[in-house]
Amino acid sequence: MSFSTETNTSKYVALLVNDRSESRVLILNLSTQPTLSSSPSKVATPPARDFISLRCEYQHLCHQLLSKVTFNPKDDQFVCTSGLNEWKVWRLDDGKMKPA
User: Fold this and answer.
1) Cα torsion for 78, 62, 17, 71, to the nearest 10°?
2) Is the dihedral of CA 46, 53, 1, 72 positive or negative?
3) For every one of its 100 residues, what pLDDT tens digit does the chain have, with 9 covering 90 and above?
4) What are φ and ψ of residue 70, in 5° steps?
5) How far is residue 27's CA from residue 46's CA, in Å, rounded to a whole number?
């Protein structure tokens, strides 16, 4: 799992899911949204907390086993995948992971 640098209120999370002979890279949009405040009451209630939503933005199937996925620390639109005899840089564009 890898996290991107925070931009505005969104942050990306990269997950790597391995099967026997292939890997799937999932890029999730991790965003926090404030909860709606309820009307004030006389009963003590815990403070409202933000909730987190996850949405799959990109996914890519690689037909070989990968061991690591990381974001470019300066530009979170670039992702690097690596494994045995494999090292690729990908650009996140239009809902797809394209070779950079």
Assistant:
1) -10
2) negative
3) 777 776 554 688 889 999 888 999 999 887 766 655 555 556 555 555 666 777 888 888 988 899 999 998 888 889 999 998 889 999 988 888 999 8
4) -140, 155
5) 33
pTM for the model stands at 0.70
Could you please report the per-residue DSSP string of the chain?
A: -EEPPPBTTEEEEEEEEE-SS-EEEEEEEEEEEPPPPPPP-SS--PPP--EEEEEEEEEEEESS-EEEEEE-SS-TTEEEEEETTEEEEEEEETTEEEE-
Provide CB contacts within 8 A for 76, sequence distance 6+.
Answer: 4, 5, 7, 12, 92
